[in-house]
Predict the structure of Cytochrome c3 family protein.
Amino acid sequence: MEKKTNSNDSSIDGILNPAKFSRDRQVDLCAECHNGIQRVGLKPSFSFIPGRPLGEYFKALPSFDSEHPDVHGNQVGLLQRSKCYLSSDKMSCSTCHDVHTSGQSLESYSLKCLNCHNWQNCAIAKKMGHQIANQCIGCHMPVEETNVIVSQTAGQVVHAKMRNHWIKIYPTGTGAKPE
């Protein structure tokens, strides 16, 4: 049987290994589902081929609120605004997320931050000491309400809440606090 490979040599017998994709193609693979609903299809639905640039298939529409886009609107786009992402050529969704495991604790995600950052440099470290090392995600990726997923139940409007993937220092008073 003849072995087949695609143009980026990450496929054998039609099985693609995203770990062998460039960072941009890895992120595109996640963005196929996690880049929000504000997009225009350039090719037919379900035609995306992993390892190809997502821009060949979808064109993102401009965000209505570029200062603080909706937390559900585009998790990948929010991550790509992060200084952590912009200052690294390796950081991707899989830096923190493992598709082979279910949800992890906030502490385990915070430990991933410490691969690049020192907890002692956090402004709150002087108050909290070493325990701040388990709180990176609570402050720098706060849970926020979305205006995209909204329901009305028992006369009340309920907004789904999601963790913001724009990793940054949020101003005090925005609801960001250690969890």
